[in-house]
Amino acid sequence: MQDAGYVRQAFAGIARRYVVANHVLSLGIDCLWRRTTSKRIAKLAPQRVLDLATGSGDLAQAVQAACPAAKVLGADFSVPMMREAQKRRFHRLVAADGLRLPFQDGAFDVLTVGFGLRNMASWPLALQEMSRVLRPGGSLFVLDFSIPRLPGLRQLYLFYLKNIMPRIAGWITCQRAAYEYLCGSIERFPSGPEMETLIQSNGFQTAHGTPLTFGIASLYEARKAG
Q1: Residue 24's pLDDT band (boundaries 50, 70, 90)?
Q2: pLDDT (mean) for 91-119
Q3: CA-CA distances (angstroms) from residue 12 to 47, 116, 207?
Q4: What is the pLDDT of residue 134?
Q5: Sequence-ordered list of residues with C-beta below 8 angstroms from that of 109, at least 6 positions apart, any chain
Q6: SS (HEC) of 145-174
Q7: Is 89 exposed, middle or buried, given 0-12, 13-18 or 19+ CB atoms closer than 10 A?
Q8: What superfamily would CATH give domain 4-223?
Q9: Which of 8, 17, 72, 130 has its CA 20 to 30 A from that of 85?
Q10: pTM of the model
């Protein structure tokens, strides 16, 4: 699990350059990942969507564009990150800790968390809280980095993750230490069947993961029991 205090401090330090760093480090592919997620959500025609760990609001805005009839709310424990979302003209925001959400049981049809579960202090408790605020039969979408399983690609990606990504991100944000910590969290974060098991063990009936871009990222869709 993660050090919540350090994560809060790290995101406050990189908030202003976070979006630029993301696009550079992923060569813009992160936009495609969010588009894939929002298209899947649109098929469910939700009315109420919570984007947890919304950060600069990129995923929330993509979901809102794909689901114009839905009310999309963004929540994050980092106020500096949400200020960046406001600069990008997303204003439906609330400051909230992912382990103690200020919402009633069953308040949302869909809950999304993009590149955020990995940074929460307790993955099981966070998933249980996500399940609580989803209605029966509601859907969870977890989008995050993962480690490719093909041996050659896996080693190449791990080298990039440990040696190149922190240097580039440090040059962009002047916060290399923060990215060394965050990049290290990607290797520790469960993916594939391990993530599916984690989700299903903490409030969800089904969970299925889809590798994106050769497994550099993964999208997990889970359903709360109806």
Answers
A1: low
A2: 96
A3: 31, 14, 32
A4: 98
A5: 44, 46, 47, 48, 49, 70, 134, 135, 138, 139
A6: ECCCCCHHHHHHHHHHHHHHHHHHHHHHHC
A7: exposed
A8: Vaccinia Virus protein VP39 (3.40.50.150)
A9: 130
A10: 0.90
Short-list 21, 77, 78, 84, CA closest to 58: 84
Any idea what DSSP says for residue 89? T
Domain ranges of the chain: 4-223
Question: Which segments within 61-123 are labelled E, that is strand?
Answer: 71-76, 93-95, 108-114
User: pLDDT tens digits for 65-104?
Assistant: 999 999 999 999 999 889 999 999 999 999 999 999 999 9
Give the integer Cα–Cα distance in Å for 128 and 111: 12
Say whether 33 sits in a helix, a strand or coil: helix
Name the helix (H) or strand (E) containing 50.
Answer: strand 48-52
Joined together, the tokens standing for residue 169 give: 């991100």
Closest CA to 116 of 148, 77, 84, 144: 144
Q: What tokens does 82 get? A: 């949400």
Q: Which helix or strand (DSSP H or E) is residue 134 part of?
A: strand 134-145
CA 176 vs. chain centroid, Å, equals 21
**Average pLDDT value for residue range 119-148:** 96
